[in-house]
Structure formats: C-alpha cells, structure tokens
Amino acid sequence: MSRGGVIGRLARLPVAGRMAALSSGTFIALLVLVGVLVHRQFGSALREDIDRQLIDVARITAAAVDDVRREELPELLRSELSGPAGSPGASGFEVQIMSATGSVLAASEGLVGAEGLVRGGAVVRVAAGVPVYGDATVKGRSHRFVGAPIDDGSGRIVSVAAPIQDVTDAEKTLLAVYAPAAAVAAVVAAIAGWWITKRSLAPLRNFAAEAEAIGALDLSQRLSVAATTDEIGRLGVTLNRMLDRLDAAWQRERQLTAKVGHELRTPLAIIRAELELLLEVLSDEELRATVNSMLEEVDRTTGVIEDMLLLARADADVVLDLPEPVDLGELARRTAERFSALAAGKGVALRARGEARTEGDPHAIERAVANLVDNALRHTPQGGTVEIEVEQRNNGALLVVRDTGPGAAPAVLGKMFDRYARAGPRRGAAGLGLSIVAAVAASHEGNVRARNRAEGGLEVIVELR
Questions:
Q1: DSSP string of 406-443?
Q2: Is residue 194 part of a domain?
Q3: How would residue 390 be classed by pLDDT, with cut points 50, 70 and 90?
C-alpha cells in the first residue's frame, strides 16, 4: 500500500484510533528493530569462537601448503593435513585451496566438487592480505568459513570451513521464541494504546457532548472543566471564555432588538393613524389607492416588528404573560376569513375546520397560525388548496396547516424552523415567520414539525399543551 493510502486510511480514523495506530505502529517498529539487533548480536557472539578457530586453522594450513605445487595439493590435504588434532580435518574442519582468480585448486573431502567459498571482490581482499569471514551452504548444510592468504607470492588463498548447524538452529530458536512474544506484545500495546488514548480524550468527548447540548439561543451554560493545568484544561477554560463573549454579544443583540422594536411601534402607529385620517378626506381614487398601498406597507412593517418583539420575548421566556382560554376552532376560522381575499386572488381554496380549546396566549397563537397560512398561500399554485385543521387531544390541542404546493426538500425539513434559514424550493418559507411558529409552540410546552404529504404538498403540525 502506498504512503498516501496509509495516510488516507489513518485520516479517516477517529483521533483515538489514529493515536493508538501510531503508538502501536511505533512500538512494533521498535520491536522489529530490537529483534534484528538482538538476532545479529546473538549470531555474532556464537560465531566469535568459531572464527578464532577458523583463522588459526587457516594460518596453519597456509603455512603447510606454502611453496607446494598444485599437483601435490590434493595428496597433501588427504595425508599430512587430515587427522591430527588442530589440523584441518580435525573437529570437522574442511579446506579449499584457491587461486588468485577464485578457482578451486584443491579441497578436502567434504568440499570436493563445491564452488569456491570466497567469491567476487572478496578474493581480491584476501589476496591483498585481509581475511574474509562469511556463511555458506555446502551440500545442504550451513558452514562458517574464513579466507586467508598463502604468503608464498603465488596469490593463492586458503579457505577453511566448519559446520555451524547448531548456531543456525539456535538462531531459529531465538526467532521462534521472539516473534510470537513480539506479536503478543504488539497486540497488547495496541489495546493498551487504544484504552489509554480513549481515557485521555474522554474530557474532549465530554466537551463535545456539553457543547452539543448548549442551545443556539441559550448560551448561559458552560463546559465542565476539571481543575487541571494541562492542555485539555486550558482548552476548556478558553472555550468557556469564548462562550462568555458570545453570551454577552447575544444579550446585547436581544436588548437592541427589543429596544428598537419598541421604539418603532409608536411612530408606525402614528403614521398609520395619520394615513387613515388622510384616506377619509381624499376623494381622488388614484390618491386613495396610493394611501391604501402605504397602509399595507405600514402593516407589513408592523408585522415584522411584532415578530421581532415576539422572538425577543421568547428568548427571554416571557411569551406567555397571562395565559387564558383559547378557542382554536374560532381562531382558525377567523384567520381563514382574514386571508380569504388573498386566497381568492391567487385562485386557492382556503378553509378551516375542527374544534379545540387550550390555555395560552391568543395573540401569539394567532400570529403563528397567520404565519403558517401566509407561508402556505405563497407556495400553493392556482387551483390548489390550503386547509387549517384543529383537533382536541387529551394532553392539549393539535393544529395542522396543509397545502398542495411543491413541498420541501428532505434536507430542508429539519431546519426550516430555524431563524433566518432559507433553503430549497420554498424560498421565504423559513425566515422569521416559521421561527415565530416554533417559538410559540415552545412557549406553550409543545412542538412543531413539518413533513411532505404523500399526495403532494407540505403539512405543518403544531402541538400545544
């Protein structure tokens, strides 16, 4: 697998997984490095005594064959250099006599027919007077050999070998013991790394859960920070300070919204009263139409300000000043009558049905129903239908507004009641209007949800307790 592929896979893991993978990977690499070093040191230690014996025998052999002609070498190896203690034939030593070019001139019985033990550039080194050690496999058995020069000016070299099957078996045994132990240690390290990392990151998970629980409109909560001075503790303190600044900014925004709203209500009321007085004395139809248009804009502006004030009160949990009985059926019919002219002008059938009663703020509930009807009418095509239905429930009342418009994209349904959110084909359906509905429902210990109808259109359901 390429380096980029490994990094990509690690990047997709959670932080705990990445840290555990990196720590266990580092530990495994360390185990492999230690294993290689121990194996090499162990093999070198086992070969030291053998190498000393080999070089001693090589020097004895080199002195014995000094100035001996090539044709005499085989007989010399069979007779004079085989048998007595300390000679090549003793203790399993085998001998090769090689030329300066690396060809075998003579060999003891165990190396007859074998290739030269000293090969390639090593032949030049030995001929130059530098002994060369190495391992070789001869006739299926592992041997340790040394190559040494014969100081007779001929450039010939002598190779002495001894079987080291016990050494290689010991090395294999070491690997057989170390490899499983290293594998178990690696697994334990991975598990321990995962556990330690999860424990170490637990405060961050708690921060995430607590931050998720902090509402967008309620920044009074703070993260639980342990009395530590480590990085996680400092992060928690920093986040709480950020929440303090956000809460202060939000409080200033709410106060400004409420103040501006209250300041604008009086001049708008005065403007409307003066326009109505002007309308009474005007006889020109064009001027009267202009004044009526101005009255509509004043009413629209007043409605936006009322929405802002209602939201400000909802943020302060004071939507319900004095709860009183509310006849939802009558309220729905009154809202339908209010929008009847608009519906007729668009060619949309608007009707209300059902009976239900609840306790609450009638003005806030009527504002919510009006926003729902206005939203439905704006997105229902000519020839469509908008229905307002109320139903009594054991634990409160249910209010449903249905339309036969295009509906909403699934991704939009979950956030269409968020403040200022706009998405999908129902543009304008999720501004302040629907956020007012959500605020009113919440103030009445209820909730609001929207869904697309199977037969087409949108259905908004408001539960009031």
A1: ----HHHHTTTTSTT---SSSTTTTSHHHHHHHHHHHH
A2: no
A3: very high
Please say whether the beta carbons of 331 and 369 come within 8 A.
yes
Query: What confidence tens digit (pLDDT) does each residue in 203-239 have?
Result: 777 877 777 777 655 667 777 777 766 777 788 888 8
How many domains are there within the chain?
A: 3
- Compare 362 and 465 and report the one with higher pLDDT: 362
pLDDT at residue 89 above 90? no
Q: Extract long-range pairs of 332-335: CB within 8 Å, 24+ residues apart.
A: 332/369, 332/388, 332/389, 332/390, 332/399, 334/366, 335/366, 335/369, 335/370, 335/373, 335/388
pLDDT, mean of residues 60-71? 76
Where does residue 129 fall: left (phi above 0), alpha (psi -120 to 50 degrees), or beta otherwise? Answer: left
Do 13 and 106 have their domain in common?
yes
Residue 423 CB burial class (10 angstroms; 0-12, 13-18, ≥19)? middle
Q: Output the six-digit token pair for 246.
A: 């956000």
At 11, is the pLDDT very low, low, confident or very high (cuts 50, 70, 90)? low
- Domain limits at 369? 324-464
* Residue 353 shares a structural domain with residue 302: no
Tell me the CA distances in angstroms from 38 to 44, 46, 167, 188, 374, one per residue in order: 10, 12, 14, 21, 82
- Long-range Cβ contact pairs of 227-231 (< 8 A, separation 24 or more): none
pLDDT given for residue 90 in this prediction: 47
pTM greater than 0.85 (yes/no): no
Is 218 inside any structural domain? Answer: no
**CA nearest neighbour of 375 among 414, 341, 409, 401:** 401
Q: How far is CA 211 from CA 43, 198, 215, in A?
A: 59, 19, 8
- CB-CB contact of 185 with 128 (8 Å): no
pLDDT (0 to 100) of residue 251: 73
CATH of residue 108's domain is 3.30.450.20
Separation CA 256–CA 190 (nearest Å): 56
- Asked if residues 89 and 82 have their Cβ atoms less than 8 Å apart, the reply is yes
The per-residue pLDDT for 427 is 41
Q: How far is CA 431 from CA 339, 371, 376, 435, in A?
A: 20, 10, 14, 7
